[in-house]
Amino acid sequence: MNRALSAIFRRLVIVVPYAWLLVFFLVPFFIVFKISLSQTAIAMPPYVPTFGLAEGWSALFGRLGELSFENYVWLFGDPLYVNAYLSSVWIAGVSTALTLAVGYPIAYGMARAPSSVRPLLLMLVILPFWTSFLIRVYAWIGILKPEGLLNQFLFFLGVIDQPLIILNTTTAIYIGIVYSYLPFMVLPLYATLEKMDYSLIEAAGDLGCPPLTAFWKITFPLSLPGVLAGCMLVFIPAVGEFVIPDLLGGPRTLMIGKTLWTEFFNNRDWPVASAVAVILLIILVVPIVFFQRAQARAQEAGR
Amino acid sequence: MIRKTALLSAVSLAATVLALSAHAQERVVNVYNWSDYIDESILEDFTAETGIKVVYDVFDSNEILETKLLAGGTGYDVVVPTGTFLARQIQAGVFQKLDKSKLPNLENMWDVIENRTEKYDPGNEYSINYMWGTTGIGYNVDKVKEALGIDKIDSWDVVFDPEKLSKLKDCGVHMLDAPAEMIPAALNYLGEDPDGRSAEQIAMAEELLLSIRPNIRKFHSSEYINALANGDICLAVGWSGDIFQARDRAAEADQGVTVSYSIPKEGAQMWFDQMAIPADAPHVEEAHEILNYIMRPEVIAKASNYVFYANGNKASQELLDEEVIGDPAVYPDQETLDNLFTTTPPDPREQRLITRTWTRVVTGQ
Q1: How many contacts does A have with B, using Cβ atoms within 8 A?
Q2: Total domain count, chain A
Q3: A269 lies in which domain range?
């Protein structure tokens, strides 16, 4: 009896996340996918066909025939969209690499710090989340603008005699993304580095391996799951990032988040905007699947 | 039979109770207006007089409002889209016709504005004018004088002549990220019909805009308020009221930044923010009451004195502060008024061409 109950309970526990995915991911995705197969119209909602059971099942199936992949063909007919996707992936990729370069030493330092100060360091990494993301990004405008804090400081040091134009360039976007997503990189890295057995490094040292070689041969390979998790956590949201390029970026930066906004709000073309979103999702799903595979493999290797 | 009667009376009792409770409920009107666009005491006065509670929400772009309206079921009773957006929304069936018998204060409205808003809302059947303004040039007086040696800007030359604009490049130029504003302005400067949207006309506007693009630091539709007020930029093509806001903020901050607004002599686009009632508004009666209240001369005058926008209410004009009615940037003289132009909403195909052109102007792609 007890065993039967616990089996039911176990099933229930599995059902909850699946139900969550179904209701909050799969159903919305199919709604967006359906809209992406529609055509734009001046109506409420602004596309046709719309589906309702008011006209009966046969009419509903009749409408299915009105759906088409036209909007997807459109996306490939204009280089704008492909360029926007490529440029988003590029910006996200560069930002991820930069975040890794900045985040790894931080995580490493934290993991090697005395265990009594680690909670404090962890707290400091999480602390920025207590302030609104929007306000933190906005604050960078004050730092980076031509008469901003950074330029004033550099003037004071005598490093520059002309203000650096950083705001409204791609550099500002990189700074914004690295700053905003740094905790997402540091936390998984810290988690793997903290668990690492440092007697391995000592053993390497005893056997005459220089510290740098030991790092690349032992520490880094062992931290790979953390590196991968951190990179995915930064890369995936960065591809679709909208706020940072909108506030810090300049006119020349083309990103898919902005393109989607333009389609949705300026062209009022919900179907094309939905098609852009579906393709963006496909671009993102590939690294996610890759990530999950790698994680599963790492878990198996760990056993 | 008896049971049926009992049932019926139970039903009617329930209905009565429901009706009573609905009646006893406080009356509400849900208003969705632009941010920083009213003297809030007007809403308090309205509630004090009528007992209708005003739930007041704000938005900051026509696109956000439109998306909500097109999705339907917003729960708003009064919304305030700009004319060009209103026209398309009427077509999409978003609004209900006003019951003019409930709006006796319509007689206060200004025919000059009503004639122009007919372009968006024929017969003004769906909307009343709240405020109107222009799209012109806001600038930092001292920095422009330093760069160009002129005391005031009175022509679009400063923006559309690449040689002149390049002198302002370093101190910073912002432009509205709104093709519906910038393409008509460019066409008007070229001597074309500002409402033109043939492929050739759009291409002409594109060529002009591309020629000045390297001198523009940012295309954005709201950031210029802060940027002008803080002295971060020296020129912005923007909406009159926003630039007045920048002017006032700069004056308040007292950091030596003086902002001024110009309606260039070649003419500028005139826009109208119209109050309308969504078709699915839950409180139609109350919506009419607040519209009628806002059309009282003393009420709308109070709003204009507060936000520094011109309104479409003739009777309110004698109640306006001198710094509002006497400011030609707010209430232009007849000659300037004759030079102001309006545009009509493009159809979806034209819209796509315009947006695509604009993306090329902004991103170079």
Answers
A1: 70
A2: 1
A3: 72-302
